[in-house]
């Protein structure tokens, strides 16, 4: 069996990144609403099959895919298990194991992620099915009340417990503390995002160390440091890159092999340009790549539109986006490449 460090390094191999396709039923319903498509077992399968059969993207630019439990066990329309498609393109299947974020007791505006009960048994099952890595997302909201120190601490603690269970099962934990980008404009400047992201990462690594997590056998999946999505502040690509990398340098130990960002509601091009600008800074102790959901999928979803006849065009759109992000992981993306597409 490959070591945790070997799996983690393969996931952040040069010029590759992760496709997050682990939308819960509620989240995929929001995405399908964009194209007015009803959510059924079949529509979810057909949509994801379109992505997973994008052979060029999956072979050249994608190292791993985060799945839901449903997809990990699912078969393509012709009966081929999805897992066989991943084997054929040397993509590592991963699994989202948290059970979602629920309102935190005794707290205003905050959530705590659930799913630790029974996790050891579930992970043993996922390992048998071939999952090489897992994901757990804790969410930290920015409001006039939040986050509180207790909210950050509780989420950091849950992430550390989850990470230990994963490593015990031989599965690489992707640790995702997401500072949400949807705060009220007055609450959510880039400075506030930087402060909250720093405080969160500090708490997360404190808990990971306390729990005894092997930092060389995990990946971090953070937000970038940006103004809130509704903020009127306009900041340059370089400022986002610099502030994000400075914050990570302050709080993320060099023993962590890689950092794979979430896109968090950024436009496709922004998410790509920010990642590329960070990699252009050079001299980084960890690999920096993508683990995007929306910023990898939206153009493909809209092109597909729920119709078989659009599968090829949708795969082309997905492959283009994956390629742009793969270039960004090398610091080689240029906006002109998107204009030319
Ligand atoms: P987005 O890139 O759409 O933010 O999703 C990534 C993810 O996995 C969130 O948990």
Count of the domains: 1
What low-confidence regions span 5 or more consecutive residues with pLDDT below 50?
none
Largest sheet: 8 strands, parallel, barrel
N- to C-terminal distance: 41 Å
By secondary-structure content and strand pairing, the structural class works out as alpha/beta
Q: How many whole angstroms does the radius of gyration measure?
A: 19 Å
Helix content: 40-55%
Query: In the CATH hierarchy, what is the architecture at level 2?
Result: Alpha-Beta Barrel
Q: What fraction of residues sit in β-strands?
A: 5-15%
**Can you list the strand order of the major beta sheet?**
1-2-3-6-7-8-9-10
And the CATH topology?
TIM Barrel
Number of helices: 14
GO molecular function: fructose-bisphosphate aldolase activity
Pathway: Carbohydrate degradation; glycolysis; D-glyceraldehyde 3-phosphate and glycerone phosphate from D-glucose: step 4/4
GO biological process, one term: glycolytic process
EC number: 4.1.2.13
For the structure shown, list the relevant keywords.
TIM Barrel, 10 strands, 14 helices, alpha/beta, 8-stranded parallel beta barrel, 341 residues, two-stranded antiparallel ribbon, globular, 48% helix, binds 1,3-dihydroxyacetonephosphate
